[in-house]
Amino acid sequence: MIRCPNCQHENLEGALFCEECGLSLWGDAQEEVSTRELEEDSDEFSVKSGWGTATFEEKNQVIIHIRDYPEPIIITPGEEFTIGRQDAASGIFPDLDLTPAGALEKGVSRLHAVLRRGDDVLSIADLDSANGTYLNGQRLAAHQPRLLRDGDEIRLGKLVMHIYFK
Amino acid sequence: MDFVDYYAILGVPPSASEEELRRSYRLAARRFHPDVNKSPGAASAFRDVDSAYKVLSDPHERQEYDRLWQQYKASAPALLVETFLSRRYVRPLDEPQLLYVLLKVQPVLEMSLAADAPLNVCLVVDRSTSMKGARLQHVKRAAQHIITECGAEDILSVVTFSDRAEVVIPAQPVVDAPSMKALVSTIRAGGSTSIRAGLQAGLAQVERHRHPRYVNHLILITDGRTYGDEEACLALAREAREAGIGISGMGIGEDWNDSFLDRLASITGGTSAYIGSLEAISRFLRERVRSLATAYAERSWLNVAPAVDVELDSAVRIAPSPMRLETATCPISLGALNGLAGTRVVLQFRLRTGASASGEFFVGRLDVGGEVLGSGQHKERVTLDLNVQVAPDAAQEEPPPELFDALSRLVLYRLQERAREAVESGDIAEATRKLEALATRLLEQGQEALAQRALAEARQVMRTRSLSEEGAKQLKYGTRALLPSTGDAGNDQVSELPT
Question: Is the ipTM above a cut-off of 0.95?
Fold first, then answer.
């Protein structure tokens, strides 16, 4: 079996391209890809594949860099970790409140997305938000979890953030 | 003339003793006998082996055969067949493994220059109400161009159809081009679409002058769907294939049934194309006819007999006219063999070596043949066996660049196919994942317009749970048009993206 570094699909021995996502499985594909610095500078609407590790172990934490926000945020997600915009009036308290980062102006929903911890992986799912969740430039369908990798770009409405595993 | 090289089929030298023949026959029986190998290709391979053994094991018949074989051996080979395997060494495993094979069939060069086969072509034109106006005008103009380009040695006919078919120009040599063009200009739109009626009348016209000397072909041009007679159309295509008549389909606009047209064409080894803009109609048609005129062999075919532990997953023709080939029929029609570019096919095999295997592993037998146009006696058939070595420490090998390049494009076409299948089975999550993956791969290969299209369709699927007719066709024919590698071939497949 050959595990695809992009989507984790297990391909048959001898496969040259991942059956699920079409990634080339031959050679040192990981080395051919642009550096992380470039990704950070790239346009927020660009589509690119992240190439960081997808392994997220028990001891790992997540560092979130929000664009135009001075401080990185370090979180330790539990089994489920919601991201959104706190609204005491309707009694909604997400695990991570993005109000200080301008969530309201940037169209972040009150319950926008959720991080979930699996077996050594971390996934994200959109919670049917008004303005959508984008992973590396691609809009996610609501309630469909997607695997996160170290260095991925997430956009909630117009709020752009990069996540790193620590 | 269908002389078959029995020595090649049994894999023995002409000097082989009876004992050698028997051994070789037993080996082949173990590989291909219908009791052990259920694939249709193997059944066909076994029939060949069986008749070879029957003749060669009889001393009297063998003597007779050897005389003919001497003549055959002296004749020039007509086809050059090469294979490129994704790897030479495999590991012994219980689980299935993949092996890709690029098959190249080239005409032998000096002969290909001599080959300039006359055409026997029928244009079958949809004149239903929806063709009214610019569509029909463009098709008529394209047909007139073709009449101008044909010579007196070519046979041309034009058939139109709506609810029923009419023969506008009966099959005849193109000697009086002005009158023929005038007849084309009389075509008027009106009525519904019955493709079966058109096909039937068109095939009858090709039939009148059908001869191995000609490239016998029917080109169907439609913008609509045929209702209820798809099966009858496919049956006609199978008859055409038996008669050696190829069928190409061209769809205009968004409404026609592309999977039906694909099947129709692939049965005969022909091609189907999507014409996005009216201006492209003429170019398409002329290129199609021109590529027929450079045909070297009509009705080339491939028989794949996989070994007992091997399956043929898929066969895709990369060039000319990329197309997924119908592997359920046996042999597989490869269509006309182009005199200049040859034919290239990517095969995907799934093998099970078993964990205790070692040494040589037989993957399967390929038989390639074609009726070389205007040829005297030539070797028109090539048989070759595919083998790999099983080695526990087999390292990763560099795949042949041409094969790898073809696969990198094929993967796009596959993602598109799978997105479509997912939509059809109602799995919207899967469909959007496939479309997004497709967009990513397209961007990697610098295909921005198509990538944007894929993303737009992903959004469309999320909103409406279905692909747009137009988008689905653009993705399909767009990814298909990428299949021939940039360097060569692909001359008759032009993809039209809207601006």
Answer: no
